[in-house]
Design a protein that fits this description.
Length: 403
């Protein structure tokens, strides 16, 4: 059957069960929770469409029907078709599987019939009970994969012969939050989180870019500014989202862990033990999320920071001259400690202390891996993420309290 594709921009998707007795299909009054406007109709589906604001109301109803629900004696279907004709609402019927085991076929059938849809409103009032769960999965699929904007998900509760529609959309929003935080913890990316926050979306996007490109100081500055806003009472998660306080607490905890405090200029940041630990936790995050290019890149710089800290150069640690001096010292002992190139070098090598040999091996291993990754593997040697070199450096890093 051909349909007018212009009507598919925003559809109201519903499903029907087997219907009740004819007396149950009398006209009833309906209203949205928290709204004064009411609408009387035989079909709750049409009532919902008419109660939604004119500028955001669906232009068409798609009704999912099992073979049994599609029978003419179904009073819910009779009421829907009657009101659709009465109020001139375009209605499309879609037959779906009858079996409880056909969830995959059900979702595929529905998805096939939503081609061209940009926005969708869900009504889970009248369908078979397990369809509400399938609608939930469908909504997540539509938003995440087909980029369909789910405007609302409604259920009608009857009380004293009047129907009241509740919007279940906040439950979908909570699922997106849980997914976004899981992605952050698994990958280190704040992109999904930044798309959901109330007011600080751009700040979080910036922090995500800093973190994903291996810039710990910029990350710390941004997180510090966000932490300051949170202390002033700025919300990150809408109150309407279920468990919003729990989600917000989890997010605040993560942001505080990245914070380097509130300061305006990078040179104002003092390299103390707290700052070293904060940067180390970011390196741990990169290792945990298998971002080895960032892990070894920052590990090289952290090693320089570590030595500058122990040289009491805690306020000038970002100066190029100071950093180059430490790098040259490390490079010098690496050259001495490398395989013999003659008796003279062997004698010099024997002059290194055991601790200097360990530092030479450490710096050489870190730099070799860092260079191989930063040059994107442009050398004959094959890089192995689970190779001996990586494992040795990771084990040494995990035991850094012995450095």
């Amino acid at each position: 059957m051909e349909t007018d594709t212009t009507l598919n921009h925003h559809v109201l998707l519903t499903s029907l069960g087997l219907g009740g007795s004819p007396k149950d299909r009398l006209e009833s009054k309906y209203h949205l929770e928290g709204k004064d406007k009411s609408f009387s109709a035989k079909s709750s589906v049409i009532a919902l469409l008419k109660l939604l604001p004119d500028d955001s109301a669906p232009t068409k109803v798609i009704c999912l029907l099992t073979p049994k629900a599609a029978k003419p004696e179904n009073t819910d279907l009779q009421a829907l078709e009657s009101d659709a004709e009465k109020f001139k609402v375009p209605l499309e019927r879609v037959e779906i599987p009858d079996s409880l085991d056909d969830a995959a076929e059900y979702l595929q059938t529905v998805a096939n019939n939503l081609e061209g849809v940009k926005q969708i409103t869900l009504d889970v009032t009248l369908g078979i009970r397990h369809h509400a769960f399938l609608f939930y999965a469908l909504a997540l699929f539509l938003e995440q994969f087909l980029r369909v904007d789910v405007k609302g998900a409604y259920y009608c509760f009857f009380e004293k012969k009047e129907g009241k529609f509740f919007d279940l959309k906040p439950s979908l929003d909570m699922a997106k939050w849980v997914h976004a935080i899981a992605v952050w913890k698994e990958t280190g990316s704040l992109k999904q989180v930044s798309d959901l926050v109330v007011r600080q979306g751009q700040e979080l996007k910036d922090m995500s870019v800093y973190l994903s490109t291996g810039l710990p100081i910029e990350t710390g500055m941004n997180a510090g500014a966000l932490t300051g806003q949170i202390k002033k009472g700025e919300r990150l998660v809408e109150k309407s989202v279920p468990l919003s306080k729990k989600l917000e607490t989890e997010l605040e905890k993560e942001i505080r862990g990245l914070s380097a405090g509130e300061f305006r200029k990078k040179e104002d940041l003092v390299l103390d033990e707290t700052e070293l630990d904060r940067q180390a936790e970011i390196i741990d995050l990169y290792f945990k999320t298998n971002q080895l290019n960032l892990a070894f890149g920052l590990l090289r710089e952290w090693t320089v920071n570590f030595l500058l800290f122990h040289r009491k150069e805690q306020t000038s640690w970002l100066g190029r001259d100071r950093r180059s001096h430490v790098e040259r010292m490390l490079g010098g002992i690496v050259k001495i400690n490398r395989p013999t190139r003659g008796d003279v070098f062997e004698l010099v090598k024997k002059g290194l202390t055991k601790e200097q040999e360990e530092w030479a091996k450490r710096w050489d291993g870190i730099c070799q891996l860092r260079n191989q990754l930063q040059h994107h593997g442009m050398k004959a040697e094959l890089f192995k993420p689970d190779g001996k070199q990586v494992k040795n450096r990771k084990e040494d890093w995990d035991a850094r309290e012995k450095w």
